[in-house]
Amino acid sequence: MPDPIFAHPHLAQIYDEFEGARTDLTAYAAVADELNAQTVIDIGCGTGSFAVRLASTGRAVTAVDPASASLEIARAKKAPPGICWLQGDATTLPEVGADLAVMTGNVAQVFVTDDEWADTLNSIARSLSGGGHFVFETRRPGRRAWEEWADSEPVVRDIPGIGRVERSLDVTAVELPLVSFRHTYTFAADGTVLVSDSTLRFREQAEVEADLAAHGYRIRDVREAPDRPGRELVFIAEKP
Q: Which keywords fit this entry according to its UniProt record (predicted)?
């Protein structure tokens, strides 16, 4: 079940306004170029920002997300042909023989149980061609991002057609490797308050590497997220 921040129609509608320009996607676009990937699976595509960017370069994209509200926003975006939008999670991926599968925006951390993560890794491997790659990022646990979240100030956006919306973030539980938090959205126009609770799993680099190897991947590289040095790692794994 996707979190309300993605699944509630009102929150999906304003998601891009709070996420901004998504400069983090530039590194993923560069990796797609580096690997010469022509067919790409975007897992947890959300409102479709990266899928649209990939398709604009002539690539064939399969974009999958469990949240119908987010997919509705994605499908409404002006995009070139070449995107297949699918509602589901990683375990529902078709065996398309893709060159590349990506999970941007720390999607890898939403798989909180060992079984969920194992099923995801297996399904992605089945969807890739031999020699295809799986690229994703995850936050460094040692950076303790949740401590910064706990001290964060509310963010306010004036959204056309909706008005002023304030988003606050509260950390609700830290039981490592799991961290839970709550986004609260207050719509000034009518006083509506919507809440979205989320839980993420923080995996150490060695744990991620061991999981990838156990599911048949060869680790090609582990690098810093260039726009967030010291905070996150980008894993590039290859299906033999």
A: Methyltransferase, S-adenosyl-L-methionine, Transferase
